[in-house]
Amino acid sequence: MENDQELPGSSLFNIFDHIDQVLVDNETRDVWTTKEPKVWPSAASVELYDQTVNKIAGKCMRSVFLGMVGNTPTRKTSPEGFWKMVIGKLLEREMTGYARQATKDVVEPDIIAPDGTVIKGAVTKGISLHVASGVRIAVPEVLLSFEVDLIALDPNTFQGVIVEQKTFSTKNYAKFKEVVKEGKPSMDNLIQLCIYLLEIRTGANLKILIQNGLIARKEEEAKYDASLARGGKPFPKRNRIEITQVNLDAMDDGPLAAKLAYLDRSDGFRKEMNISIEEDPLDELTYPVVDGQVWKFFPLESIYARYKELQEYFYAARRVAEKQLYERGIEPSLELQDDATWEQKNAYYKDDKEYYDQVGKEMRSLPPRFWPPAEYEFDYSAEKIELMWTKGLVAKTRYEGWKKKHKGKERIGDWQCRFCDHGLTCMKVEKPELAYLLADLADSEEEGS
Hints:
With 449 residues, this protein is of the alpha+beta class. The chain has helices spanning 15-27, 61-68, 79-101, 173-181, 187-200, 203-229, 245-250, 301-327, 342-365, 382-390, 396-403, 415-418, 423-430, 435-441; strands at 45-47, 56-58, 103-107, 111-112, 118-119, 123-128, 130-139, 144-153, 160-168, 242-243, 257-264, 270-279, 286-290, 293-294. A hairpin with a 5-residue loop joins strand 4 (111-112) and strand 5.
């Protein structure tokens, strides 16, 4: 029998060759220019007090801007990267399901009557942890929107707890050292969760937001049904809010707590961290609190200041782009009238999209002086590396490899540049002589997960 002949009962096709392509196609986002500079928690960043290594933590403003104006990513996510996203979604879904199933009998404290009689505390059986999931929240002041995956009920205090689930791998030594050895949250994850706490703050506020979300879901369902009745195509239902009413009613109206729940994909190791926020009475700024320790590395107010700065760059570029189009006789469509027919609405939306596609093209053609500054460095200077070495901020093997110019260790810089979606676009401006290095690394595994 020939070696390449298929054996009975076997198959030579590779299933991942087929499934991977479907996954990549489904998860790859279309590239387009946003009409307004909407932001999201994963695009957040803060200005650090100690700027020895970096001025910021979180997302580089330039990278977010380049995505907003519709630049094609120069780094494509591999199937492995998308599978990590799948695992993250599975964790979110399963933890939410298990929170519904997890129950605990709650015993209230005994009460001493005036005559000294002890009245046994009431026992409430089978308290579930699930309060709500899929709660969508909008902050119009900065065009911010986000969704809270899970709100749990502390069965001992009835306090509401925002739970954010994250996965990581011990293959990423930096994340392993940070989360497992040092017990610290990733800065990106911490910033994201602090945004949730800043915007919701209390159980009373959360109840109002959930009620609004339930109303919005009913409106979306009605719109969906009406669209199908007109012969329209099904559209994605984005509002997926779910509640456990008895727990929502029981939840305390006071300040919310939060947890970062980490799961190691490689061995199932789990680590959770308690997160809250606290205002300093002296400087009147707000800071994260991690497991009871105030982190005075950055003020949370800088998140919003940087969102607004990013949006100012976008609006400045858009104004110039619109002016250039106007000078060529290209203008936006007139505003849509309230009594417009469906045909008129469809024509308007088509013209509006075509106009803003042209605006985006003009914005992308503007020179780099319209971009925000690059906030991370692909390649540190020798002076900076030596300073970081003296402060214990560079691993010994990495430093010695750099000194001896070992292959693969001759460069020390920020991992954010290496794994930036728009790294090559940026590098061709910042350090064109090193752009080839970034191109060689473009298909590597994601560092920050």
